[in-house]
């Protein structure tokens, strides 16, 4: 079954609580928290995302899907641990070496969250193959990380297909999440490629009827 992780990146602060209620009423599966440090990516969202994560955890029982687009991964794992996220995802481009990557995987497991590794559009899945048996989710970025509202890069779906084939052949139980440019036109393409978790932000939040927008995606 396809799950939806609603990105709060383009959420307007004055409408935040109302929109979160509408997203939950529409039956999303997670709130997606895009944490950017202004270093790993240009934009800095650390304060607003912490605010949204705290709000979501107070008004909802839905899990937090925390996506760390940061250099100091360990610092933010520690910062978010008190909110008991369902998933914490870090970028393989940030940890850079095997020793640190393994250490971060264990750190996330130790706080009781599921572990995700994200790969940017220019990164091959070869970079993460050795870690797949030890994590729960691969987040394939279908746009360049750091900005909301971008169009999906079609070539990234080939990476999703390659990853799906690889894990199926080896019987690895792992989720494939896609993030960037997912809407009513591209959701089916991502699902057909092998994704089972869709990160959707701008499409849902800008919809006149959030519940109906979610229903359309889930019924596809």
Give the topology, please.
Layout: E1 3-7, H1 16-25, E2 30-36, H2 46-59, E3 63-69, H3 73-80, E4 87-91, H4 92-95, H5 98-110, E5 114-119, E6 137-141, H6 156-169, E7 175-179, H7 187-193, E8 197-200, H8 202-205, H9 210-219
Parallel strand pairs: 1-2, 1-8, 2-3, 3-4, 4-5, 5-6, 6-7, 7-8
Helix pairs in contact: 1-2, 6-7
Q: What percent of residues adopt helix (DSSP H or I)?
A: 25-40%
Span between termini: 10 Å
CATH H-level homologous superfamily name:
Aldolase class I
- Give the CATH class: Alpha Beta
With strands numbered from the N-terminus, the spatial order across the biggest sheet is 1-2-3-4-5-6-7-8
Radius of gyration: 16 Å
Order of helices and strands: EHEHEHEHHEEHEHEHH
At CATH's second level, what is the architecture? Answer: Alpha-Beta Barrel
**Helix count, DSSP H or I runs of 4 or more residues:** 9
Share of residues in strands: 15-25%
Overall number of strands: 8
**Overall pLDDT score:** 96
The chain-level structural class is alpha/beta
Query: Regions with pLDDT < 50 over 5+ consecutive residues?
Result: none
From the spread of the alpha carbons, the general shape counts as globular
What is CATH's topology name? TIM Barrel
Largest sheet, strands/sense/barrel: 8 strands, parallel, barrel
Number of domains: 1
């Amino acid at each position: 079954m396809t799950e939806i992780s609603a990105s709060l990146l383009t959420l307007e602060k004055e409408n935040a609580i109302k929109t979160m209620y509408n997203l939950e009423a529409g039956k999303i599966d997670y709130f997606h928290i895009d944490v950017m440090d202004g270093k790993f990516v240009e934009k800095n969202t650390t304060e607003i995302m912490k605010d949204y994560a705290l709000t979501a955890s107070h008004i909802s029982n839905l899990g937090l899907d925390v996506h760390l687009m940061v250099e100091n991964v360990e610092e933010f794992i520690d910062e978010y641990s008190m909110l008991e996220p369902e998933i914490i995802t870090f970028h393989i481009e940030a940890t850079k070496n095997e020793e640190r990557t393994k250490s971060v995987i264990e750190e996330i497991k130790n706080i009781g969250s599921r572990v995700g590794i994200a790969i940017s559009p220019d990164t091959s899945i070869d970079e993460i193959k050795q870690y797949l048996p030890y994590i729960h989710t691969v987040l394939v970025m279908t746009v360049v990380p750091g900005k909301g509202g971008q169009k999906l890069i079609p070539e990234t779906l080939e990476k999703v297909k390659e990853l799906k084939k690889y894990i199926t052949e080896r019987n690895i139980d792992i989720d494939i999440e896609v993030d960037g440019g997912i809407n009513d036109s591209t959701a089916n393409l991502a699902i057909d490629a092998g994704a089972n978790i869709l990160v959707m932000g701008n499409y849902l939040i800008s919809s006149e009827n959030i519940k109906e927008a979610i229903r359309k995606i889930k019924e596809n």
